[in-house]
Structures are given as C-alpha cells and as structure tokens.
Amino acid sequence: MVEYPGAVQNKELQMKAPNSELRTLNSEETILEVKDLQIHFFTDRGVIRAVEGVDFSVRKQEVWGLVGESASGKSVIGQALVGMVSKPAGRIVSGEILFKGEDLLKKDSRELRKIRGNQIAFIPQDPTIALNPLLSIGFQIGEAFKYHRSLNMNKVHEQVIDVMKVVNIPSPEIRVKDYPHQLSGGLKQRVIIATALSCRPDLLIADEPTSALDVTIQTQIIKLIREIQDRFQMTMILITHNLGLVAKMCHRVAVLYCGRVVEEAPVRELFKDPKHPYTRGLLASLPKGEKGNVDLYTIPGQLPNPLYHPPGCHFSPRCPHVLKKCQEIPPIDRASEDHGIRCWRWREI
Amino acid sequence: MGAYIVRRLLQSLIVILGVIVITFIISRVIGDPVALLLPPEASPEQRAYLTKDLGLDRPLYIQLVVYVAKVMKGDFGHSFRHQESAMKLVFERLPASLYLSFVAVLLAIGVAIPLGIISAIKRGTIIDRIGMTIALFGQSIPAFWAGIMLIFIFAVQLHWLPPSGYGGFKYVILPATTLAFFVSAATARLTRSNVLDALDMDYVRYARLKGVPEFVVITRHVIRNTFVTIFNIVALQLGLVIGGAVITEFIFSWPGIGRLSLESIYSRDYPVIQATVVVAALIFVVINLLVDIVYIATDPRVKRN
Amino acid sequence: MKSPEDSRGSQQRLKLRKLFRRIPKGAASIILILLLCAVFSPWLAPHNPIEQNLGAALKPPFWQGGGTMDHLLGTDNLGRDILSRIIYGARISVIVGFVGVILAGAVGTLLGVIAGYFGGKIDAVIMRLTDIMLSLPFILVGIAIIGAIGPSLTNVVIVLGITQWVGYTRIIRFEAMSLSRSEFIEMAVISGCRWWRILLVHILPNVLNSAVVLATLDVGKMIIIEAAFSFLGLGVKPPTATWGAMLADGRLYMTVAWWIVTFPGLAIFATVLAGNLIGDWLRDELDPRHQLKA
Q1: B205 and B273 in one domain?
Q2: A324 touches chain C (CB under 8 A)
Q3: Which domain holds residue B164?
C-alpha cells in the first residue's frame, strides 16, 4: 500500500464535525437529483468538456458539498442548477436536473426565472462586484422579493429589515439606505446572503462564499451560514475548494476532478477513510499546523489541458496506482450505501 | 466634491483664456485691419491716425492684455462690415444655431440611442450587424454632400420641402437631419459599446440570478448605469455641433453663428470672427462643465459633506 | 538545423500572411483602387481633368439620354470630364489623407507620450492645451487660418496637422501613463537609461499600435475635412480637380445636372467608408483580447 508522505493520521486531524451531524437527517427525501449531466463549452480552439457525466442527489435539509480545484467544473454545475451557464459557448449537452421532481432543463426561461431567487437561491463568490454600485443595498435586497411576491413597497421594506436582522447587519433601519461602497467586504457578503434568504428558498447554492473575503471575516461568515442553516433547516449546496470549510459545514460531500465525481461520502467517512487516490492526495496536501513537519505535500503532475482530457480515468496520468485498465472510464463503485468511488482499484489500495 | 468643482472651474477658465489668446493670434495673422478699413487711396496720415485709434501702435503684448480684458467684459469691438458691436451680431444669430443644434441632437439621440442599446442586447445577431452598418454609413457620409443630396431629393425633385431658409419644421428638418447624420452614427456606436460593457458586469448577472425579469434587468441595471456616460457623449456632441455647423448653415442659408463666421472670414471681419470663435468655445466648455457636475452629483460613490 | 532566428522569422511571416487573409476584402480593394488612381492618374483618366470643352458641357452619364461613352460619367458646366476629375481628385485626397494623418498623428502621439511619461506639470500643460484645442470649433479656426495664409494643398495639410492632433493625445497619453508605471520601464530607469532613450525605444513602439489604429480611422475624417475646405473655396486652388470643389461647382447646376454632385460625393463616401472599415478591422485585430482566437 502506497503511503503518501505525511499521510493523514486520524488523531492529528482534529476536525470538528458539523453540529447537524449529530442530528440524524430526518428526511431521506431528495429535493434535487442530477442525472448524467454533461456540459460542454464550444470554443474556437475546440470543445471543453467541463462536466462529463455527473450524478448526485441532495436530500432535504442537508448541507451537500461539492469540492474541486479550479478547473474541476464545480462552478459550472452551480451555474447549471440555476440555468445560468454562459451562452453561447456553454451548452448543457445532456442530462437531467430534477428539482422537486421536475426537470429544470426542460423548462423555458420564464419558468426558470420564477424559480431562480425564489425557490433556488444563489450566493456568488465576490460580493463586491455582484452589487450594483448605484442602487442602495436595501433596494437590492428587496428586489428579488419584490418580483417574486409582488407586495407593496412598505411590506417589502419590512421584510428587508427583517432579513437584514437575520444576517446580523447592525442598525438595519439606517443601513438600508446605504450604498455598496460604504460597506466592508463582510457586510457586503451578509447583504448577499440576506438577498438569497429573502424569499425563503428551498435550496441555497453557495459558490465559494468566503474566498473573496479576509481570513478573519471568513470565520464570521461561516458561522453565520451555519447558524442560518441550523435555524431554517435549509437545504444547501456548498461549492468550494476549501476542505476545511467542507469539514465544518457539510453532511455529505462529493469530490470533483476534471468534470467527473470521483468520490462521494458522508464527511466524516471521507476524512477518516478516503478511498480515491485523488481524495487522498487532497487530504495529504492539507497543512498540518505547528506540530508535524512543515513540508507540504503536493499531488505530482498538473491538471490536464481542458481541451484534451486523458482517455479513461482523468486522474490516471497523476495517479500512483495507475494500471492499463485505467484507460477505461471506471464506473462508480459503492463501498457502502453512502460511499461511492470512481476507481478500478479502490479495494486494493 | 466642492474642491473638484472649483478645480474644474479653474481649468475651464484657463481653457477659455487660451481660446481668447488664440483668437488674438489668428486675427493678427489674418491681416492688417487698417488696410481693410480704409480705402486704398487713403493717405499715410489717415493710416497713422486709425492705427493709433485702434491701439495697433502699442507693443504686441500690451495689445494682448487689452484685448483679453475687453473680451472678458464681452467687448469685441465693432464689426468692420456691419457697423455694429460684434458681440451683438453674434448674439443675434446664436438662437438660430441653438435651435438647429437642439433639433439635430434630438433627432440623433432619438435614433441612435435605441439603436445602440438594441444592437448591444442582440449582439452578434443580424439586428446588430444591420444597426452597426447603418451607423458606419452614417459616419462615412460627408455631411455637406448629404445635405446637398437631401436638398436635391426633397426640394428639387419632390418639392416637399424648401431648399433653404429659416423657420419652423419645414425649414429646420433638412439641415437638422444633415447635422444629425454624423452625431447619430457616433452616438450609436458609443452607446453600443457602453451597453456591452455594462451587460458584462457581474451585478447584471446577479440580478438575473435573483430572478429579476429581463426587462427590468436591462432598464434598471444596464441602462441606468450607462446613462451618465451616454449623457456625457450626447452633451459633447451638442457642444461640437453648435460651433461646428458651419457648412450645414452655409448650404441651407441658415442664419446661425456658423454662417456668420464664414461670412466674416471671407470679409476679414476679425472682430466678428473672434467673437464667434470665443462664444462657440465658451458654449462647449460650459456644456462640458455641466456634464461633469451632473456626473458627480448623481454618482453615490462620490463623497459629500 | 534551424536556428531560433529562422523559426521566429518564418513564424512572423506566417502571422502576416494570416493577417492579410483576414483583411476585409471590399474595403481593401476600394483603397487599392484609390491608390492606383492617385498614382497612375495620367494613364487611367480618359481626359485631361482641367481641359475645358464648352461644346460638351453638361453632358449626362453614358446610360442616360444624350450621354456618350466618351464621357462615362458625364461632364460639368465647363465641359470637363467628370470621371477624369474624380481620378485626379484621388491624388489630392490620398495626399491629404495620408500626409495629414501622419502629421497630426506624429504631433499628437509625441505630445501624448511626453504627457504620459513625465506627468506632473508637463502633463497638466499639455492637457490644458488639448482642452483648448478641443474647445475651438476647428472648422472655424481652420478656415480662418487658410483665409489668412491663402488656400493651397500644403496649407490645408498644415491646418489639418495643427487641429487634428488632439484626437491622438488623450488616448496615447493614457497608454503611455500605464506603460510608464510598468515594471520594465522601472528596470530601464534603474539601469540608467536616459529619458529620451526610454521614450524612443521603450514607450513609443508600444503605443504605436493604438496610434496606427487611430490614424487609420482618421484618414476618412481628413478627406472629408479637405473636401469641406475645397467646397468652401478654401482648399486647393482651382482649376485643380478635387472632390470637394466638384461638389461646390455642381451645387449650382444640381437641378439640371445631378451627376456633377453625385459622383464626387460617392467617391468621398466610398473612400471614407473603406477607411473606416479597415480602421475598425485593424482595431479589432490589435485588441489584446483577440489573442484568444487561434
């Protein structure tokens, strides 16, 4: 068995499991099911297969994590869930996205618009550029609400103040008239979160909600999101490259590599016993902290050129366990009911 | 904000001063006014007398200072041709030019801005191509040729409109259209590129993510954010057109300051030349200043005390 | 064995060839025709452009009744052949367009580079100067100057150079400013490069791209302005054929001879259109964002 240098030892890794893990997930009910999603980008230089056959499902009240590096396709999946894949280059080639049983990909733009912001809310990565500099934050928070509920201005105003309180924005009655440039990064992100919450969505998708923020603010925001999730029992999809965030927030997590899910498991299991070589590499490359050695492990090799994915398993060029068989795409194998691995050799390694 | 306005005012003042100095230089280049005013058989004593009277015997820099001081008060002297105060002449003709320019700009933006916006929204489609081709054509047509052709078609052949003269709609529509050609073309293209930039902004994307209807996204997020820039462009064109409609006024015999200046140049009437140039420049500078003020007054990012 | 220089040269030649393949063909051919007319006018024009022939005055183009194949586009009020005058007129337009643009472009770019690199007071002075020139209604100023020094081709070009440089300065200054802040300029300064060398060798070549694009877009404007001057009688002296003067002449006879006004105008229009198309194409080609295309 190959040992990764500085491989994860259970005792060293002091990961706090999210509170909600202690609660059993009441609903086994699935709110979102994605089947064989294929998203390709058609450029002058060739076709980029950003998402190549991704399946997953998210249960009600669950926090589901999607982890991957920059070009893994995770953001594209997030965009696809709200129907905002960049046209004209990007196209959802095949697959189904079943939200509450209905295929979103078969809906026209008007129906999608009604769902967006209303039942499915999206938190983008950078709050600074997501807010219109010429409009007050109160207005922008209430915008989604206004168009999904058609209430009069006073009602909207009340709701805006309410939701600002939920995200702990101080003195909301005064700040409602502020403009984005008057707010710090952390406050702006709270505004974005407030906007997402305003319509009490069934599903909240957060794309790297903390990467654009300072480290100190990140902790605050993470705490806030967790509180909100606890309080409202909201279903959440968390898209991130930050494994620490996943450990703190998610119930289950899927690891994405070059457009395919390579491993999917409950968080605790994934960290305790990662089975896919890529996942192991990821976990091994986490910095250990002041104890342990300071040398960082990095997975050898580089991400493949998005235009030319290797045949078969995408990770094979960098995998220490590669065999000839890996030229064929491995299917998802089950270690347990909840733990899926896309590898031919997971049992042996 | 106050400091900025003061700075802009100062800049504008310097510019006006510069313009005044340049008109002085030009007029001295144009020719000797004494020779222009007196008949050729005038005697040397008469010439000497007039030179002294006009203050032309003093050193050049003193003449300049005197000139600038007078101009600041609005005194350009008397027109050589018309025996009236140059300033008065200019002010008599100014309204006609303003009228023509306003109509031209209104026509232009009525066509150009919607064209630019639609082209941007439908970028890449056939509508976009057609729109921008029209704009390109408009920019390439020499205004005076367009004017002549318009006269030919509408006045000579069809007899629908008078070929020249001053008056209401019938008279102003052709010259205004002629002027509008170039203005609309430039405005359409600039509008399109500004709207394209705005459409790329993340907050537009985010508004869509919130589920805001597309029409509202366009009007509230895209257009409102480009409004100031477009306003800027339009004002600039207005400023240019007021002073620069020389040829159009000439072709259509429109009694504006453009035609006045042309006549004065032909007849070497330099007080009037100076007056028109300075007034035209002044209008341009003032419009620019106003645009800047509007800009900072409407942008919430500018700090106010 | 190929040396690195060889492969770079052939790569550049490949790029140039690809570039030429993408030029908008229609526009390029119009410009080509223009240049041919300008250079080879004595051979291309069927008649002498200034020769008057009152017996053949006001003849319509050949497809209309009364026209002849001898004068394909008809004649003007003095019996001069329109087609020949247009061909010879191309000379004036080409000279004015190119020389004017080079003059204005050179002055404007130089001032822009100086303003952008030195900043501070020099920048402020140049910017004020630019503002002043922009505020002046340039047609008036141009006409006034020509009215003073007399109409001639040289004078028109000079006036164009004096008034049109402003369009370049603002944009070049902006680029020069951001270039001056960049690291390789810092390196040049640190390694003791003199300012004039930095300007000439480092900054100027890099702003040349934008300058060329602006210049190409300006050619059309120059031609129109020259035509305007000629139209007002302040351009090249008659009887030299220039498109603007033809418009002025033809205007008086518009009711009886529409062709005198139409064809020179079309010539101007076609030329300016072609110039704008090529200018636009060039700007899109040189836009760094276009490097994404293969």
Answers
A1: yes
A2: no
A3: 90-298
For residues B220 and B213, give the distance between their C-alpha atoms in angstroms, rounded to a whole number: 11
In this predicted structure, the answer to whether residue A292 has a pLDDT above a threshold of 60 is no
Same domain membership, residue B64 and residue B95: no
* CATH value at residue B150: 1.10.3720.10
Element (H, E) at A278: helix A277-284
Q: Per the CB < 8 Å rule, is C135 touching B284?
A: yes
- Collect contacts of B88-95 with beta carbons under 8 A, ≥24 apart: B89/B260, B89/B272, B89/B275, B90/B257, B90/B260, B90/B272, B90/B275, B90/B276, B90/B279, B93/B255, B93/B256, B93/B257, B93/B259, B93/B260, B94/B256, B94/B257, B94/B279
- Residue from B13, B140, B154, B164 whose CB has the most chain C CBs within 10 Å, to mutate: B140
Answer yes or no: pTM beyond 0.80: no
A44 — contact with chain C (CB < 8 Å)? yes
Nearest-neighbour CA in chain A from C240: distance (Å): 52
**Is residue B81 one of the residues assigned to a domain?**
no
Percent of chain A with pLDDT over 90: 6
Show which residues on chain B lie within 8 Å of chain A, measured between beta carbons: 201-203, 205-214, 216, 220-221, 224-225, 299-301
Taken in order B229, B230, B235, B238, the sign of the CA dihedral is: positive
Residues in chain A with CB shorter than 8 Å from the CB of B299 are 134
Q: Are B36 and B115 members of one domain?
A: no
Mark whether B143 and B290 lie in a shared domain.
yes
Q: Is residue B120 part of a domain?
A: yes
Q: What is the pLDDT of residues B29-84, one digit of tens each?
A: 666 666 666 777 777 777 777 777 777 777 777 778 888 888 888 787 777 777 78
Residues B67 and B95 in one domain: no
Burial class (CB in 10 A: 0-12, 13-18, 19+), C184: exposed
Same domain, B61 and B126: no
Residue C46 CA to residue A35 CA, distance in Å, equals 76
Question: Which of these, C137, C48, C102, C89, lies nearest to C236 by C-alpha position?
Answer: C89
pLDDT grade, residue C34 (50/70/90)?
confident
Residue B78 belongs to some domain of the structure: no
Domain count, chain B: 2
The beta strand positions in chain A, using DSSP E, are 30-43, 46-59, 63-68, 90-99, 102-103, 120-123, 203-207, 235-240, 252-257, 260-266, 333-334, 340-341
B243 and B161 share a domain? yes
Given a contact cutoff of 8 angstroms between Cβ atoms, the answer to whether B234 and B188 are in contact is: no
The neighbouring-strand residues paired with A56 are: A34
Both B146 and B240 in a single domain? yes
Long-range interactions of A145-153: CB distance < 8 A, separation 24+: A145/A198, A145/A199, A147/A117, A147/B210, A147/B211, A147/B212, A147/B213, A147/B216, A148/A114, A148/A117, A148/A118, A148/A199, A148/B211, A149/A199
Altogether, the residues listed in chain A come to a count of 349
Cβ of B262 within 8 Å of Cβ of C280? The answer is no
Residue B211 lies in a domain: yes
Helices of type H across chain C: 4-22, 25-44, 82-118, 120-135, 138-149, 153-164, 166-180, 183-190, 195-197, 204-231, 243-252, 259-286
Nearest to C147 among B15, B156, B265 (CB): B265
